[in-house]
């Protein structure tokens, strides 16, 4: 029985899956959008949304200790302080008045080699709501 089993394993062991999701999230934050399979995009969406939410809290924090703590939590995923600064200072302020839904997945067709469904996984532009 699969009661309360929510995670999609992507046919990978745990450490490989975590690395894959973190790499997809890193690419989305660096590039703004990537092309990947629909299933991988849906799995990575949760991490990207949580990171943006933490970055919004860090950006709005008046207490510098709280801001540093939240930035370090984000840094646990990437181990790259320049990327964390970009997320907290450039990306998060754009979504300050938005309550979730920072990404979208647009299906673009099927991959020629194995017919996997491909999608464009991107951060939403600021003007859309």
Automatic annotation (TrEMBL):
InterPro entries: Ribosomal_bL17, Ribosomal_bL17_CS, Ribosomal_bL17_sf
Gene Ontology annotations for the cellular component aspect, listed alphabetically: cytosolic large ribosomal subunit
Swiss-Prot/TrEMBL keywords: Ribonucleoprotein, Ribosomal protein
GO BP term, pick one: translation
GO molecular function: structural constituent of ribosome
Pfam families in UniProt: Ribosomal_L17
Gene3D superfamilies: Ribosomal protein L17 (3.90.1030.10)
Highest taxon of the lineage: Bacteria
Coiled coil: none
Similarity-based family: Belongs to the bacterial ribosomal protein bL17 family.
Oligomeric and partner information: Part of the 50S ribosomal subunit. Contacts protein L32.
HAMAP family in the cross-refs: Ribosomal_bL17
Protein name: Large ribosomal subunit protein bL17
Organism (species): Geotoga petraea
């Amino acid at each position: 029985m699969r009661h309360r089993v929510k995670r999609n394993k992507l046919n990978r062991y745990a450490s490989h899956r975590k690395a894959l999701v973190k790499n997809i999230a890193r690419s989305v934050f660096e590039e703004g959008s990537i092309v990947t399979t629909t299933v991988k995009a849906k799995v990575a969406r949760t991490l990207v949304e949580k990171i943006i939410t933490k970055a919004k809290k860090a950006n709005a924090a008046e207490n510098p200790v709280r801001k540093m703590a939240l930035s370090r939590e984000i840094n646990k995923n990437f181990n790259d302080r320049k990327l964390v600064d970009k997320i907290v200072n450039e990306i998060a302020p754009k979504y300050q008045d938005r309550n979730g839904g920072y990404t979208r997945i647009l299906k673009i067709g099927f991959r020629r080699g194995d017919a996997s469904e491909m999608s464009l996984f991107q951060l939403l532009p600021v003007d859309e709501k």
